[in-house]
Every structure is written in C-alpha cells, then in structure tokens.
Specification:
Length: about 425
Amino acid sequence: MSDRALMTPAAPAPPAVPFEPTHPGLWATAAFTLWTVLLSLPMLRGMWLASSWSDQFISGVPFHTWGTEWYKRLGHLPLWDPEVFGGLPFVAAGHGDMFYPTWLLRFIVPVTTAGNLSFFVHYILAGLFTYLLLRRLGVGWIGSVIGGLAYELSGLIASYPSPGHDGKLFASAMLPLMLLALVLALRDRRWVGYPLLGVATALTLLGHFQLAYYSLIVAGLFALYLSFEETGDSRGGERALRLGMALAAVLIGFGVAAIQILPFFEYIPYSPRAQGFHGFEGSTSYAIPWSHVPEFFIKNFVGWTPNGTYWGANPIKLHSEYLGLPVVALAVLGATARERRRLVLWIGGIGLLFLLISLGAATPFYTLWWALMPLVKKTRAPGMAFFVVAFVTALFAALGVDRALATRNRRGMTVALIVGAVVTLLGITGAF
C-alpha cells in the first residue's frame, strides 16, 4: 500500500437511516392503543373509568341517562329539564356532549359503557393526531410515537377521568388535529386541510368551549408561523388567500357547532354558575398556583384531594400537572435543536404564553390578558390552559428524540446520554 493511500482520508460514513417499521401508522396506533388499554384495565373488568367524586358520577350519568330516555320518547332532544333547580334548559345549559358524535353510543350500549368508550377512544386519538402532526412536520417515526405518547400520557390528559371531564379530553384530542389541518392547508397547499380544519373546529367547540377558545388561539398563532416561515416562495396574495380560506373553514366549524353555541350564550345571564364568581378574583380562581409548579417535574408534589394529601392553595385538586421527567429531559434537548430554530421559537412562544395564562394571578401578565381578551371575563379556572403546555412539551420531546438519534450529532447524543443517566437515577429514587 502506498504512502499516498495511507494519507488519503477515509470517506465519511453515510448517516444512519432512521428506524421505521413496515407499516408505521399501524404500529404507532398499536402503541397508543396499548397504553390506553393499560390505563383502562378497570373498564375491561366491567368497572367505570370515572371516579365516584367526579362530575360524571354527580351529574354526567344522570343527565345523559335522562336525556337518552327522553330522546327515545320524544324523537328529539328534550329542551327543558324540570327535575333540576325547579326547571333548567337542557340544551342551553350544556348538559355534556349532546351534539358530539359520542352521544350516539348511548343508543347502543349503557350510558356508563358509552362514557368509558368515549374516554378510551379519545386517548388513542390524542396520541395518533399528535403523531400524524409530527410526521407531517418531518419528525422521525420513533420521535413521533414518543411525542404522541408524551401528550396522551401527560399528567393532565391522563387524569381527566378523575374529575370526569370527558369534554376536556375531547377538545384536547382535537388540538393536534387542528394544527395538522393547518399544515396540510397552508404549507402543503392540500385542499383536504380546509374541511379537516372545519371538522376539528366544530368538534372542539362541541367538546368544551373554554378549551376551544384556547385551541383557536393556538391555531391562529400556528397559522401565522406556517404563513410566514413555512410557505417558501409564496407571494403575499397567495398567503392571504390561504389564510382567508382557513378562516372560512373555522367559521364553518362555528356554524356546525352553533346548534350548541347560540343557546348557550343566550342562557349565560341566567345561569346559576354565572352568579358564583365576579371580577378578576373570580376569573383567576382555580389557576395554577406557584406551589403546584414543582409538580410539573415531581409527581404528586402537592398531593391529591380524594386521598387527603393535597396541601396547595386551591380548594380542591382532582387532576395532575405532571409532565414526566423523561419527557421534560427530551423536551430540553429538542428545544435546543438549531436546525429547527424557527419552529422551536414559535412553538416555544405558544407554550410560554399558555403557561402564563394557566398561572393566572400568580403573574402580572394575567391582568393584561383579562383586560384585553374578549370573553375572558366570563371564564374561570385558567389552569385549564395547561393542556397546551403539555402539548408543546410533547412536541419538543419528539424533536429531542430525533436529535438524540442523529448519529452525526455526537455532542447531542452525549447530552442525551447524560440526561438519560440523570433521569434513570431519579427514577431509581422514586422521583417519578
């Protein structure tokens, strides 16, 4: 062998091909279903997922059973319930998912079984829609699956059955679908994105009004990102046209949901709950206090009301705000991905905005939010907005997985291994 041959640098090794199974969507769905089955084992034993202290037990099942029985008698939904408060509008007062597709299950199976199935299906959808969004954004299969699981199994989403908040789960599951529709419509210029956006908007509104309010703000900000950062050489007129069509799709979604929205807004001045809180103090009730913040990283840090361990500032706590230490570690890695800097900045900004919203009066920001944003004065419990923070964390975690698996990024892999070692040690100590 000549000296010249010895001095010739070796050709760089080709980058490793990211792992992807033969049927990626099918295997991803199987992963989301497996963990949902494990969470739903009580249901498979004939038990009820919602707890005995939940809204489902106190009001959901009675309302759903009564409404189903009277629908069968009348041939349409009853408009008046004479058995509550001496008489109460049934549709206008919003007695659960009366116009959401899951209400049809009550004509096939018992009401409690229908409730179980509604939770079960929407956990899978929350993971699957997040996976599909991440794949569309160019994230690898493993990262997309982990991102979907991170959202589906985040503390807030996974604990929705505890207070019986099925509508919140419905709306939370639709958020990634709304953003997927925007990617298809605005960036990829595919017509299917517009009807999909309309459907997602309608389902979100029919699921939970306040979470729909938050989701639409997220969608609006994400639409701006897609229009100004991801549209390539599109001209201003083309961008404006696509944004206008997206807005039209959202308005059509409002039109579909108007069957519930219009009676509800007419009923608000007469609602008993409207008299329950007033002003800034009422609107910021059930925000996330500072004492809860460590629970983002340490499971059950402030305890739980049903078992008598809750010591925080709110009157009750029936949910979890735990994001998962492994997920947070991956999210930190993903948030530093330089190759996706613009996406990270926009998504991170959305996450920060909704973190401030969920903290309520704990920061001065909410005073400005409460004063300027329409309809906020008619809401309470800004802690609900934390589902957006959980979603953003899951997206960052997916980017972190992609970065850790990029073998050409040795420094990133080293950081990932160090973070993984720390997380493992914390797991051994029982921190999560």
